[in-house]
């Protein structure tokens, strides 16, 4: 099942993508569940199957980030060995975690912004894990039961601002630099999230390729670790890290510029597409 958030005729809603049609659940469920985030902690499949909702043509809606308002976006740094090596990072006993703000997110098909203060705009294709059932101190063996589903993520990075200090926050939080979508594929359709091919394309050329089996810290470990220091809640997002091949570490370097098209494709999940434009 593909869960989406969207706007139609100026009204925000959410629902299920069924081929070229959208089942508009928000129209009938908004009183109980004002957003998709509110629904994720419930029996989503049961509620969807029990709900009669109007259908819209996909062409009638504008996609939003699948969860437009996550309470937390936890990003994992240097979580593929190839990327750790290319950045010169040391082997660590614990995941590197930093945060991204929800107001940086940009949906599939929308323009991502290249801020005018930098020319070092880099791509980072990633698998995003969206939390369904929240919790604290979640055991690794139970972790996947807390997952609502998976989406594509592009943790677009402003590299020079990322290097201002040892903290990544400035370089990871410019407006419209967190590509997220196009939808959430529910966890029941992804039997093994550690066996997914991931690729990033820039103007049609493949610039990153890996399999999620190559993560240093797997999804179970990430959920266990993150829930040990913070309460995970429905709709929270864990961006699980990018593989090697980022533009900053290429020779010559390969940064994105206005007019470029960047796409993240993950097997069984989908393809996220954004065009780069200058920040207004």
If you had to describe this structure to a student in words, what would you say it looks like?
The protein is mostly beta strands and 280 residues long. It folds into 2 domains: 2-64, no CATH class; 73-278, Fumarylacetoacetate hydrolase, domain 2. 14% of the residues lie in helices and 36% in strands. The protein has helices at 25-29, 36-40, 44-49, 81-87, 159-162, 219-229; strands at 2-8, 11-18, 21-23, 55-57, 62-64, 73-77, 96-100, 105-106, 111-114, 121-122, 125-131, 147-155, 157-158, 178-186, 197-202, 205-211, 237-239, 261-266, 270-278. The strands form 3 sheets. Strands 1, 2, 3, 4, 5, 6, 7, 8, 11, 12, 14 and 17 form a 12-stranded mixed beta sheet that branches. The protein is globular. The relative contact order is 0.21.
């Amino acid at each position: 099942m593909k869960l989406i958030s969207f706007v139609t005729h100026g009204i925000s809603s959410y629902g299920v993508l069924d081929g070229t049609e959208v089942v508009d659940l928000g129209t009938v469920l908004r009183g109980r569940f004002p957003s998709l985030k509110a629904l994720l902690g419930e029996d989503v499949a049961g509620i969807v199957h029990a709900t009669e909702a109007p259908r819209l043509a996909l062409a009638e809606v504008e996609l939003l980030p699948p969860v437009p308002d996550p309470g937390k976006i936890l990003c994992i740094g240097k979580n593929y060995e190839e990327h750790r090596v290319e950045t010169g990072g040391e082997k660590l006993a614990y995941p590197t975690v930093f945060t991204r703000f929800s107001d940086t997110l940009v949906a599939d098909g929308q323009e991502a912004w290249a801020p005018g203060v930098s020319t070092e705009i880099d791509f980072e294709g990633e698998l995003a894990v969206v939390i369904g059932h929240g919790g604290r101190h979640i055991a690794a063996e139970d972790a996947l039961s807390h997952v609502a589903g998976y989406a594509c993520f592009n943790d677009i990075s402003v590299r020079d601002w990322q290097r201002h200090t040892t903290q990544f926050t400035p370089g990871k939080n410019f407006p419209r630099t967190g590509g997220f979508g196009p939808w959430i594929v529910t966890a029941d359709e992804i039997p093994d999230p550690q066996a997914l091919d991931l690729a990033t394309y820039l103007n049609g050329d493949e610039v990153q390729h890996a399999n999620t089996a190559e993560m240093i810290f797997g999804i179970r470990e990430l959920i266990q670790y993150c829930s040990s220091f913070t309460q995970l809640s429905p709709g929270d997002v864990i961006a699980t890290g990018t593989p090697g091949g980022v533009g900053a570490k290429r020779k010559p370097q390969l940064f994105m510029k206005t007019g470029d098209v960047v796409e993240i494709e993950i097997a069984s999940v989908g393809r996220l597409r954004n065009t780069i434009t200058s920040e207004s």
